Amino acid sequence: MTLKSIRLELAREKSHPEGDSNHGYEFRAPLTADGHLDAKAWTAAKTLCVVRHFRPDADDEIGVLHRTKAGHWVFSYELGEEDDEPIFRFSSHKFVPGEYVSITEHDDVQRPFKVMSVKEWHPSK
């Protein structure tokens, strides 16, 4: 199984008409050949599926890609659900450059993010 390193950047929205390359997420996840999240492979690799949430007005947050008991995907930074950031229809999204995904951030605002890159990830030797 190969993990992918995926970079999302804030897409155009009302408060950012040009988007914002300094606000986004970098995370690792297994993908199918057509670019969808591979939930079965995630089960075997979930400890490697980390996320970095970056934005210009705060320190980076490091967390994990997590699947809730209800089957929803979230980025989680601490134990418990209080800090989880739900990802809208995550399992149905195609992770290829140019596609979009919506994430509800800590301020409870759902924002669009654009897939900027998808690269193979290999652990450092």
Q: Please trace the helix and strand order, writing H or E for each element.
A: EEHEEEEEE
Number of domains: 1
Mean pLDDT: 89
Principal-axis shape: globular
Number of strands: 8
Helix-strand makeup class = mainly beta
Strand content: over 45%
Q: Provide the low-confidence segments as ranges.
A: none
Helicity, in percent? under 10%
Number of helices: 1
**Radius of gyration from CA coordinates:** 14 Å
Summarize the biggest pleated sheet.
Answer: 8 strands, antiparallel, barrel
| Strands ordered across the widest β-sheet | 1-2-3-4-5-6-7-8
Quaternary organisation of the protein chains: single chain
First-last Cα distance: 17 Å
Overview of the structural elements:
With 125 residues, the chain is mainly beta. It has one domain. It is 6% helix and 48% strand. The chain has one helix spanning 39-45; strands spanning 3-10, 20-30, 50-55, 58-67, 73-76, 85-88, 100-104, 110-121. An eight-stranded antiparallel β-barrel has the order 1-2-3-4-5-6-7-8. A hairpin with a 2-residue loop joins strand 3 (50-55) and strand 4 (58-67). The longest helix has 7 residues, at 39-45. The two termini are 17 Å apart. 23% of the residues are buried.
Compact summary:
The protein has about 120 residues and is mostly beta strands. It has one helix at about 40-45; strands spanning about 5-10, 20-30, 50-55, 60-65, 75, 85-90, 100-105, 110-120.
What key phrases describe this protein's structure?
125 residues; mainly beta; 8-stranded antiparallel barrel; 6% helix; globular
